[in-house]
Specification:
The chain is mostly helical. Helices cover 77% and strands 1% of the residues. It has 16 helices and two strands. The protein has a two-stranded antiparallel sheet.
């Protein structure tokens, strides 16, 4: 990431410093349960870190529209708990051994305990959200959870299959971008936004979320295991065809398609190596194609803010898409 991007990131962090500290404190309180195993798992997950980009977006959106109050911190913790719960369930479904460079929670506590801890985190998120006494907020959370669960089920149905780009975008909206979009909507609801303002921020969140997931999928294919904190090309090994892979399936030679499909069928790199796949993607310009798509969504996100009032919070939101597409992990 460039020096300018790092400097801008620090400015955004300084802008939200007190709020993000408060979100961490809220998450610490919310991780407590009378059942010690739940507390241990929830605390382990919280200590695993993360970019906290979803709470940051909610905070920036709320402040952009003039909100100041404890609700943004509470709901920032809520969206982070929902995100964490999805990661727990994803790791169980995928049989993942690592997450952010550490053993995944299911590796330490087992699937049975972790699936229940993930369920508890969902319910805890709703409990905290209830403090806002807003039916609109609860409606958004229910719709969000349904779409994310539907996305996970759709992905399971499509494992090992060469999905279309339209199917891919539907999946990543449900699994990732929906939470970004809902985070922005909840921030705007807190601020008493107009319908147009809420829709603009939701459009921004959707575009940022799509760009984020496309880049995430590219990094899975191109970054090192040390940087990723998990094995390279794990998505393909699990039978998931992401955008760069779909592009090579659509534009590669019959031999290219055969090699990719072999991995999707085998769920391993025993017969076709990771290096061979990277050569196929390079020859077809597939990584560049995916990155260009992420750039287009980043620009779409910036355009969604055009009619919103200028402030330091709007300027921070304008920078976020640049961070998303330039990140290395």
């Amino acid at each position: 990431m460039s020096t300018l991007a790092i400097a801008t990131a620090r400015e955004v962090f300084d802008l939200l410093r007190e709020d993000l500290v408060a979100v961490e404190q809220e998450l610490g309180r919310d991780a407590a349960s009378t059942v010690s195993t739940i507390t241990e798992i929830a605390e382990y997950l919280r200590e695993g870190g993360g970019k906290r980009i979803r709470p940051s977006l909610l905070l920036l959106g709320a402040h952009l529209l003039g909100y100041s109050g404890p609700g943004a911190v509470r709901l920032g913790a809520v969206v982070e708990m929902v995100h964490t719960a999805t990661l727990v369930h994803d790791d169980i479904i995928d049989g993942a051994d690592t997450r952010r460079g550490r053993p995944s929670a299911n590796t330490k506590w087992g699937n049975e305990k972790c699936v229940l801890a993930g369920d508890w985190l969902y319910m805890q998120a709703y409990r905290v959200a209830l403090e806002e006494q807003s039916l609109r907020i609860l409606e958004l959370l229910v719709s969000l959870t349904q779409q994310m669960v539907e996305g996970e089920l759709l992905q399971i149905q499509k494992l090992g299959k060469a999905v279309s780009e339209a199917e891919y975008y539907d999946l990543i909206y449900r699994k990732t971008a929906c939470l970004f979009s809902t985070s922005m909507r909840m921030g705007s609801v807190l601020a008493g936004a107009t319908e147009a303002e809420e829709d603009d921020l939701a459009t921004y969140g959707r575009a940022v979320g799509l760009a984020f997931q496309i880049v995430d999928d590219v990094l899975d294919l191109t970054a090192s295991e040390e940087v990723l904190g998990k094995p390279v090309a794990s998505d393909l090994r699990e039978g998931k065809a992401t955008l760069a892979v779909i592009h090579s399936l659509d534009h590669g030679t019959p031999r290219d398609r055969q090699a990719i499909q072999r991995i999707l069928d085998d769920r391993s790199f025993e017969n076709v190596s990771r290096g061979q796949i990277q050569d196929i993607l390079a020859r077809n310009g597939s990584v560049e194609y995916a990155r260009a798509a992420a750039d287009r969504y980043a620009e779409q996100a910036r355009n969604a803010l055009a009619s919103l009032p200028d402030s330091e919070f709007r300027r921070a939101l304008l920078w976020v898409p640049d961070f998303v597409v330039a990140r290395e992990k």
